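Input.
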Amino acid sequence: MLFRSPAPTTPAPQPTTTIQPGEKQSGERDQAMVDAYARLKGTESLGQATTYAVPWGDGLWQKFKGVGAYGDAVLLHANGSSRAYAVHGMLLERYLALAKAENGATRPPSRLGWAAGDEKVIPQNSLGTSGLYGFFQNGALYGTEKYGTFWLSGNVLKTYQGLGGSGSFLGFPTRDQYTISGAWAADFEGGTIRTVNGVTKVYRK
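Output.
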């Protein structure tokens, strides 16, 4: 079940009139957020803004009410990037939980970094599971109602995506990436990925 995701540690000033996508408290607008809202048909996928666009770490954050099954949503714009991207619902919930555990939600979690692409809906795979995918600077989140939302990064993620990701025989991840004797590993619906003597290996169930 989705819950209302918390705002960054420093609460954003609440608007007294209808706030616009990308609007800062000063009245200026962040063009990348404006463009993202239009690109994503924001009235259908993001809904009405509930905060101003405010600094978060080394970029900007703006929260939206969300629309239906999409759940709560945010637009994230990293400094130096020409584009802003959206994160919704279960992926947003996990993203913020990781940030809170790592740094009190004062900035993005380092294992993922800023969003680097718009969230995508993944159709049902050969194992009968569908879900969501979020791409970030340093990793990815995969979310399903069946298993939950989990992060992958580095060579494990590279190997997984090289095989076809959730559409491959591996299917969706069933837990977060973890370490065995200091080496990265990950478990999936249809198998596992292990790092053995520095080499990433894939095993079917």
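The first strand starts at residue 54 and ends at 56.
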